[in-house]
What we know:
Blueprint: E1 5-13, E2 19-21, E3 37-44, E4 47-54, E5 59-67, H1 70-76, H2 91-95
Antiparallel strand pairs: 1-5, 2-3, 3-4, 4-5
Amino acid sequence: MKNQYFSEVCVPIQIPYGFRQAEKEHLDFTFDREDRFTDFQIEKDGQDYDVSLDNNGQWYFFTSLVCDSLDELKLSRQIFRPPYLRNKEFPLVDTWRM
């Protein structure tokens, strides 16, 4: 049986452009207020990405990644490529660049 690890990542970003309001759907995340985040989508190169605006005006990029090892799980949360790890794949860095 193959192990799978799930990584839910939320990264603060600068104000995006070209976003549209996302359809309301129930997510499994619980925050202290129902209106803590307003969800939007950005389309880039035919792919939709989820971004959210919190009630303080900060934008965030949200994504879910499936990892096959604990090492891959650790690397999935990197927000920049360290120079000493040039040949490693970084799902968060390599997936979404704006």
